[in-house]
Every structure is written in structure tokens, then in C-alpha cells.
């Protein structure tokens, strides 16, 4: 190889890109060509770095050791390099092993020859001394997962914002309960992480060694330190200020996601102490568990797998430890599923996560477009919840229960609903014709708005009053906006612990009550011979029946789906059906064991047919 070839190759390595062509020519005289057979270990993890290697031909594999065996970190090819740590600092240990995957041709340079070449070029030596520490930091950062995907230039830029710090054995780095302004990268040494229990006793959590990151949670969440960190031997650290970390995460999306994952893995969620667990079992032997917080009137339903995780939420287990425990129990590695379960429990108010604020960390760094969409989404899905309404609803129930919940009352309501459906289907005017006729006096269409709100109130009143019929509590009511229209809702979660029939009755009571004003409007349109009135009544009835149909759709999280799930006594019916379809696609499932899933599929298909027929009836 000529001197120009060496210069061209060396410029690709970040360490040598600093130097002029003249300086690189000096270095090229000290390189030697080496050939390694396939499978040969070129450098060993933990050994002292002595030589730098630049690959000319072939491929190499970079691996680090772990408790479960070697973990491959990267595959290198022609033009790539490794071992630069040997040139940057004496007595530095190799952080990974490198194996030749094929016959490998490489150029190598020893530290002694590198320093000798520097002595021959005073300008190059001065430049190296000024930048060696930055390059050494960048080389260290490259080995850590949040930074491994960054380019050499970006690593060097971030490395310049760090500060070096040396600590003695026994020195306290972080104190539990203090606010944080810095986080640390453990460059060399060992530290102990401890926390205090409720009575103030110190409880060890972990020992961290070279390559560990700690202290970042308090910086990102704005909370106080949740642990104390003490050096157990003389250690070297890199210090990252809060501003430097936030700017780095803002500029580097890939590193940002890895930091967020790291925080989630370290979070130690703790279940609320006021939770009561109630168990029930379906006729098919499917067990389910209801978490009930009587102090806050909160409910949450869990599967047996969810209960297993719940019992581990003691404030001592990290998400990583929960994932490993789940794998040992169920032989399924599902960290994202477990993270979602923990997130859902937190959103339901069932746990007291120490790093709760980190759940919104991703939003801190989102683009303006994403943030605007997030804000718009919250606006279009806002809701206002009113608690402590049970006594008020109980009073209403006592006054009207004899009218609506007696046999005579139910006969009257049933007659209105059935005759209303008959009257509606007997109309000779299509919904299109009715709308065109109503448009001749558009001011009359405004009457549909209060009538529509009234029908929704009927729907929710049906749920609420039926809850009181079964002597359960209505925990709250509310109203809001859901994307394209207003919404009202009733909190019927106290019914979760009831038997199947009461739950089904409360679920169906909503759409059933919704059909009362629709039935009255249909009957009046059938009886009264007035073109404009008939058109408005028909439009209102049509809108109400469409809302009822959509509410009964088993594909959506509305009354129809929950009624079917209770009828089949099959919690998580949709998720189970999706798993069933996946297994059926692979041909390893027996249909006879999946009665509930088959009924759900048939119900979805049947609903599709009914909905299409209903639309045709409305239009034609």
C-alpha cells in the first residue's frame, strides 16, 4: 500500500481524522499488516489494550460477556476499526472481545509506535494532547447502549459537555430525598445503591460497575432522588448536568427512547395499601380478580397473570425484575405487555409509582406537530367527572322505581319499544326524503339537537337506575366531548363484583332506555298526519336507532361488547379471540375448546349484516 492509501484509510477513523495529511504520513510508516484466521480472538475483553486495528478485508464480530453467555454488540467490515482505546490511554482495559468471522486482513498500530510518531510531529502531538480526553470519553460512551448508535462526531460533541470526577471509597454521590442537578456515568470503579424503608432502615438495592448510568431519573422527572449512591471503591465518573442531558435527549431521538426505556426498567411501582381483591370464576372455570379501593371507589379487573404481577408490586421489584419473574412463571418474555399493564394500573389509580412523572417524559421532547396533536386529542376527548351522586340518584330511583321497574311499567316500556320499531319500519318515506323535506324549513332541524341530548340522557339514566335496582352504588356521572360529539357517562364499576345477570341487565338498560324516545317519535310519526312533523320525528328516530346500533357493536368498547363478554362469562373476550385466530391460522387449535371465541366471531359477522340491512332500510 502507498502512503496515500494509508492516509485515505486513516481519515475514516475518528482518532486520526484530527491530523493533517503530513502527520498521517508519519503514522503510516509505523503500521503493520496482519492476517487473522476465521474464529481467532483478536482482542480479549478485560485485557490491556496494546494495539489499534483497521480492517482492510474480511469481517469481525464484537461481543461482550454476560451471565447467559457472549452478547454480540456489532459486526465490523472493511474500513471500520477497533482498539482505539489502546492509543488513547495506557493500562486501559478492553471493554469487549473481537473475533474474526472470516479471514481478516488488517493494519495494526501499537501505542509505543503511535507515541513515537507523535514525537516526530510536534503539531500532531499538541493536537492529540488537547483532544485525547474528549476522544477517550467518546470511546467510553460508544460502549453504552444509550449512545451506541451515535456517530463519532455526535459522540465527541456530547463528550465535550461532560466533566470528569474522581471519588474516594465511601464517598456519597447521591442522597435520597435531595433534588438532582447532575447524573453520572461510572467510568471505572463500583458504587452501591440503597434506599430507606418506611421506618428509616437502609435497604440495599444494587451494586453498579463500570458502564452504569445513575441519577438521571431525578433530572428527567423533576422529582427528588429516590435512592442513595455511595462509592465502595475509588471510582472515576463522568458528570452530566441537567441542561446538557436535556439538550442531548432533545437532539438525539434514538438515545432519548433508550433513556426512557432505562427509566421504566428501573421504576419500582408499589401497589396501594387500601386495595381489596375479590375473586370470581365463570362457569367455564375462567378466574378473574377485581381490585377494589373502597376509599376512592376505584375498580380494576385482572387476569390470573395480572394478579401475579400485582402481588409483586411491593416497591422493591423493578420492571426488569418483574419481566424476569413473569418469564420464570409463564415462560413468556413480554416486557412491553408488562409495562403496559403497569401503566394501566397507574392510570387507574391502583399503584403509587415512585417515578410516576416519567410516564409523560416522551411528551417533553416531542415535535411541535406531535405536541399540538396531543393537545388537540385531549381537548377533543375531555371529560368532567362528578362524584358523590349516589344519594341523589337513589332519591330519583325511589320516586320512579314503581313506574319503570314494576311488571306493569316494563310492559308499557316494552310495548313502546316494540311498537316503535314496527312503526319505524312501516314508514313509506326514506330518511333521505325526510331530510330533503325538513330542509325546506331548516330552522326546524335545530329541534333535533336538544332531542338528541335527551335521548343520551335516557341512555345513561337507564344504566344508573338499573344499578340502583340491584342495590349497588353509582360512583359518579360525567359529561364531555368525544372527538365529534358530546358524551355523557355513568360510572357503574360497582357492578363488576355482581353476578352475571345483574351485570348484563345494567349493560342492556342503556340502549333499551335509548329506544324509548325513539319509539315514541316513531309512533307519533305513524299516527300524526303532518308532513313536517313526520319528517322531524323520523329523522330523530333514525338518528337514535343508529346510535343504539353502534352502541351494540361487539367490535367496539361499548355496551354490546360488554354484554357479550358477560353473557359468555369471558373476560378479555376480544384479546382471547385474536389469540384464537392467530392459533387457528397456524393450524394448532381445537375448535371445540373455543366456544366463546366462535360465538364472538359469529356475533361480529351477524352485526355487520344487520347494520348493512338497517342502513339500506334507512336510505331506500
Describe the protein.
- The chain has 620 residues and is α+β, with helices and mostly antiparallel strands.
- It folds into 5 domains: 3-141, Jelly Rolls (Sandwich), CATH 2.60.120.10; 161-251, Jelly Rolls, CATH 2.60.120.10; 276-365, no CATH class; 384-539, no CATH class; 552-620, no CATH class.
- It has 23 helices and 22 strands.
- It is elongated.
List the defining traits of the structure above.
alpha+beta; Jelly Rolls; 23 helices; 48% helix; four-stranded antiparallel beta sheet; 5 domains; 620 residues
How are the SSEs placed, and which strands pair?
Blueprint: H1 3-10, H2 21-28, E1 32-36, E2 41-43, E3 51-57, E4 60-64, E5 71-76, E6 81-82, H3 85-88, E7 97-100, E8 104-110, H4 111-119, H5 122-142, H6 152-159, E9 163-167, E10 172-174, E11 182-188, E12 190-196, E13 202-209, E14 213-214, H7 216-221, E15 228-231, E16 235-241, H8 242-251, H9 253-266, E17 276-281, E18 287-293, E19 298-302, H10 304-311, H11 319-330, H12 335-347, H13 361-364, H14 368-380, E20 383-387, H15 390-404, H16 407-425, H17 431-438, H18 448-469, E21 476-482, E22 485-491, H19 500-527, H20 531-551, H21 559-567, H22 573-585, H23 595-619
Antiparallel strand pairs: 1-8, 2-7, 3-6, 3-8, 4-5, 4-7, 9-16, 10-15, 11-14, 11-16, 12-13, 12-15, 17-18, 18-19, 20-21, 21-22
Helix pairs in contact: 1-2, 5-6, 8-9, 15-18, 16-19, 17-20, 18-19, 18-20, 19-20, 19-21, 22-23
